[in-house]
Structure formats: C-alpha cells, structure tokens
TrEMBL record:
<feature type="transmembrane region" description="Helical">
    <location>
        <begin position="61"/>
        <end position="84"/>
    </location>
</feature>
<feature type="domain" description="Major facilitator superfamily (MFS) profile">
    <location>
        <begin position="24"/>
        <end position="429"/>
    </location>
</feature>
<feature type="transmembrane region" description="Helical">
    <location>
        <begin position="310"/>
        <end position="329"/>
    </location>
</feature>
<keyword id="KW-1133">Transmembrane helix</keyword>
<dbReference type="InterPro" id="IPR051084">
    <property type="entry name" value="H+-coupled_symporters"/>
</dbReference>
<keyword id="KW-0472">Membrane</keyword>
<dbReference type="GO" id="GO:0015293">
    <property type="term" value="F:symporter activity"/>
</dbReference>
<feature type="transmembrane region" description="Helical">
    <location>
        <begin position="160"/>
        <end position="183"/>
    </location>
</feature>
<feature type="transmembrane region" description="Helical">
    <location>
        <begin position="407"/>
        <end position="424"/>
    </location>
</feature>
<dbReference type="GO" id="GO:0005886">
    <property type="term" value="C:plasma membrane"/>
</dbReference>
<dbReference type="Pfam" id="PF07690">
    <property type="entry name" value="MFS_1"/>
</dbReference>
<keyword id="KW-1003">Cell membrane</keyword>
<dbReference type="InterPro" id="IPR011701">
    <property type="entry name" value="MFS"/>
</dbReference>
<feature type="transmembrane region" description="Helical">
    <location>
        <begin position="244"/>
        <end position="261"/>
    </location>
</feature>
<dbReference type="InterPro" id="IPR036259">
    <property type="entry name" value="MFS_trans_sf"/>
</dbReference>
<keyword id="KW-0813">Transport</keyword>
<keyword id="KW-0769">Symport</keyword>
Amino acid sequence: MTDIALAPPVALTQTERDRAIRRTVLAGSIGAVFEWYDLVIYAMFVPVFAKLFFPTADPTVGILLGLGTFASAWLVRPLGAMVIGAYADKAGRKPAMVLSALLMMVGTGVTAILPTYATIGLAAPVLLILARMVQGFSAGGEFGSVTALMAEQDPKRAGFYASIQWACSGFSVLLASLSAYAVNTLLTPEQVLAWGWRIPFIVGVMIGPVAWYIRKRAQESPLFATTEHAKNPLREIAAHDKRIVLIGAGVVAAGAAGSFMNQYMPTFAITTLKLTTEQALIGTMVAGLINTVMPVMFGHLSDKVGRIPVMLVFAVIGLLMTYPLFIWLVQEPTLAKLVTIQALLAFVMYSGYFATAPALLSDLFQVRRRTTGISLSYVLGQLLFGGVTPLVAAALVAQTGDRTSPGIYLTAIIMLSIISLWFCRRLGVR
C-alpha cells in the first residue's frame, strides 16, 4: 500500500521553518534524555536495589533479581510499541510523545519514593517491578514516535536529525553516571543505602514536566500532516511488513546489546572484577561523553554515503574487537583497561553503528505506518538483545565461571546484525 498525499500545509518562510525544526528537535531530544537517564540510573544502582528490594543470603542471586527487574521493563515494551506507536500513526507523532513523557514521569516518580523491603516487605519488589514496567511501556512507543518525527523533518538529512536523539541518549548516560558518581563519592555507603540512591531518581522526575511542556508546543511532522493516516496501523504492518519488522529487529540487536553491555560494565567491574564503585563509574562517564559528541557525525555521514556502508564498517570492527578486549580485561583488571573497553564500545557500537539505525528503520517503512513499524522493530530488538543483556551476561559468568563469556555473547549478536544489514540491502535501503 502506498502513501496517499493530502493537501499541502501552509507554506512557511525559511526562518519559520528553521525555528519549527529547532523546537521539534528539542521536544524529541529531551524525551530521549529522560528515558535513558532513568534506565541508566537503575542499571548503575542494581547492587543497591539488590540489597534493599531483593535481600537474599546469596549476593549473586540478589544481583540477578535486580537485573531481572531491569529486564522486566522490556517485557512490556512491545505492548507500548503497539499502543503508542499505533496512536502516533493515527493521531500524530506529537500527542504520542506527550503521552509517553507523562507515563515516564509516573514510572520514575514511583521508583524515587518507593519504600524498601525492610519497610513494606514483599510489596516493595512487586511495586518496583510495576514502576519499571510503566516506564518500559512508555519507552516502548517513545523511540518510534521521536524517530519518525525527527527523520520526517527533512528526508535529505534524516540520518542527521534522527541521530540527534542518540546524542541526547549519550548525554543522559553522562548525566546519569555523573549523578551516580557524585552520590557514591559524596556520601558514605550507609547513606547511599539509606536515602542517597533516591537523589538521582528525584533529579530524573524533575526533567519530566519540562519534557511535557516542550512537547506540548512542538510542531507535528510535515510528512505526517500531508499523508493519509492509517486507520489500523497494526493490521497493515501484519499484512505487509512482518518480515521487515524482523529484519529491523536484527539491525537493532548489535547496537542494543553493545549499549547495554556498556551499562552493565559498572556492575561487572564491581561484582566480577572487584574494582571499586568509583572506578567502575569512570568508564561510563567517558562512554557517555563519547556518545554525546559522536553520533550526529555518523548520522550526517550516512546522509552522504548511505546507511548500510556506515553501519557495516562499524559492525565488522565490533565483531573483530569485542572478544579479544574481554580477554585482555579479565587477565589483569585495571581501571585503564575498563575505561578503554567502555570507550571503544561507545565509539564503535553506539556512535558508529547504532546512531545510524534510527534513519535506517525510518527508511524501511511507509509514512502511514512508520511509527508502528519502527517501534515494533526497535522494541523487539531491544527486548531480545538489549534490556536482557546485563542479566544474560551476569548469568553466563555465574553459570560458566568464564569472565570473558559476555564478549562471546556480544560477538554472536553482532554477527546476527551483519546478516540483517545484508537483508536491508536486498530491500533497497542504501
């Protein structure tokens, strides 16, 4: 089914057009900061959540339960992708983004004020899981709505605009790691356990009203405004794009796994490599800085030379470097090695490979069902290979005793994404 154009919108001057694009980019970007800040903060405080919400005789079991709660948010992301993604294709990208911002505030806010197991018993982990699931539901539709809105600002610069939210996500990693580092260095371990862990989540909640206000004032996508809207985007996807959704999920896999492997590294460094909490967070701050600066460069490059060439080069680099780097790290763990690996994962798998993925996903789907298709591909890839990566990596180490096993896992997923890129080429994506 082809897109059907509606009446063209009222023409804007170039100045008005530039101003509208800036507002739209800001509206999409601040939501990305909010979403990823919350996710990264939780990942960094998993050892704390394990003690406060999942107290067990075996610390490893507590860590796995804490990581399992992190992964639970991904279980409802497909539902969020279907509901909010379809809403964005029927009602508009803007109202979907406003809705997701409100839901993210709820998830983060509940986490910030939730009593611990010592206070309310079993209700504490149950409520924590529910809070993470609300956040996961909202995030399920967030990426697709923002990606469609950004990419549709100017088709000739779709790679650049779509990659901006990845730069903002990188900034959120930097912001989250700085927050976690400040809490862990300025407070005693007892203070962190008692109340200090709540501070970063309270900071996150404060971002929410700003995101909601800015999004209320954003402009709708010009392509969406001039295209006939799908009455049932999910049905259209099921009828026409099932295979494309799976291919898109395969493309997302390597970037998702690489990103969450980097977020798992502080927990890996503390629990497996026996480095200090302060040391474990330094690498994440460096990675966050790289991911703030570099993504738009490669998004812009993809507008010039194509999506596939940029992503394929970095996928192959990631395939060759990942496992050897883990061997190098575990032989004699040091802060310098940890920072080096996290910096390389950030540059290669996030900035180089993943920053171009939003524009590529946008290229795969028609405008009328684009947000639904992007959301489902992204969420499926993140569900199978992203949010579960910290849990799988920790479980592999615990079960096999092989501290390099996370590197083997990531290498296998990168190979899957290389195959998916080949299928994208056959679909006509350049």
